[in-house]
Amino acid sequence: MSIDFEIPAEAKAIRERVRQWVHDECKPAEKRLVAGEDYKTVLNELRAKARAQGLWCPFIPKEYGGMGLGPLANALVQMELGESHLGALSMNTQGPDDATMMTLLAHGTEHQKEKYLKPLLNGEKRICYSMTEKAAGADATGMQTRAVKDGNENYVLNGEKWFSSAASVADIALVMAMTDPDAPRHQRYSTFIVELPNPGYKIVRDIETMAVHGPLTEILGGGHSEVEIKDLVVPAEDLLGGEGNGFNMGQHRLAYGRLRHGMHNVSMAQRALDLATAHVIQRETFGKLLKERQGVQWMLADCAAEIYKARLMLLHIAYKAERGDDIRQENSIAKIFLANMVHQVVDTAIQLHGALGFSLDTPLAAWYTHIRSQRLVDGPDEVHRWTVGRNVIKAYERTGTTASACGGDLL
């Protein structure tokens, strides 16, 4: 019996359209921003073109104005968009908005969909997700922010949040808080929708990080905010998904976010390898082109192998998602591998560029300081390795082999 790796023709066609879109529209738009043109003007023009071409919200159902792509086709699209920092933004599929749209779509009331989801889908507003806290870190069940019901109409929230990505450019926030400290561990937390600005949701600062900073990067990414939540009043109608369901909803959206990061990492790594290859083809040292040196060829080969594994990994996960299979083990493995893969490939590309790679004359240095965070966000490597390792042990105890936890039941 043969194993079919053929991608459906329709999905291939969509991938080609998006690949062309990134090269023909997004990359030239990047140059316009570097030249000093207004960000909003450039992005609005880009988005208008994308919508006119039907390239909008890839994974959102058609009845909500999206492309209605399944997991496989969406994975192919996302693996193209990461080549430009305007790619996802141009099609309104950027994080953290995209995963939150999915949450609102799955769990929002009709009122919430009309008031909050609709402007997000139209690209009129942005949203952030405030879950992480200093006291809790990777353990979301350690969060201390509390939500106390005030009668039947409102909740009052108090606490603090840390690394709320995109909060400084957001119009809406999803805030997770403890509603029942006596409930089972994963049922203590609820999620609330908050309109911004709000006096009860105060951005203390955008946390300085090792990433390259500048006016444009702050607008594009929205920074990572430290937030003080003090006497924040939220109407009961803005409780999302019911009391006690915040943790499970959060894990679902984070699972997609991890994969989306990984998908974008593939195209970023591919672009880094392209830049490195173009450089070694024309760069001469000690009377010899770099491309002719075996050591350089080996470095390129290592990068190619990592990208190859990454593509297969993501396509397999997308395949399982299409069938509705459990992908939690594969998702954790992919999260670890893809974050380290892009770090390795970009680092190699910098090395092959020499001092030029260390400069900001290519995008590599800025990418490097940005992608280092991916081994921390959405759960650090260690947490996912712990999860994967426990599943390996469970598989052996259950079946006498670890195969099912290591891809032994791929299909």
Automatic annotation (TrEMBL):
Ranges where the Acyl-CoA dehydrogenase/oxidase N-terminal domain occurs? 9-124
Q: Where is the Acyl-CoA dehydrogenase/oxidase C-terminal domain?
A: 244-392
Look up the domain of life of the source.
Bacteria
Determine if Flavoprotein is one of this entry's keywords. Answer: yes
Matching InterPro entries? Acyl-CoA_dehydrogenase, Acyl-CoA_Oxase/DH_mid-dom, Acyl-CoA_Oxase/DH_mid-dom_sf, AcylCo_DH-like_C, AcylCo_DH/oxidase_C, AcylCoA_DH/ox_N, AcylCoA_DH/ox_N_sf, AcylCoA_DH/oxidase_NM_dom_sf
Query: One short Pfam family name for this protein?
Result: Acyl-CoA_dh_1
The regions listed as transmembrane in this protein's record are none
Q: Which residues form the Acyl-CoA oxidase/dehydrogenase middle domain?
A: 128-214
Q: Which cofactor does it need?
A: FAD
Q: Does the keyword Nucleus apply?
A: no
Keywords, ordered alphabetically: FAD, Flavoprotein, Oxidoreductase
Q: Which PANTHER family match?
A: ACYL-COA DEHYDROGENASE FAMILY MEMBER 11, MEDIUM-CHAIN SPECIFIC ACYL-COA DEHYDROGENASE, MITOCHONDRIAL-RELATED
Q: Subunit structure of this entry? A: Homodimer.
What family does the entry list? Belongs to the acyl-CoA dehydrogenase family.
Q: What is this protein called?
A: Acyl-CoA dehydrogenase
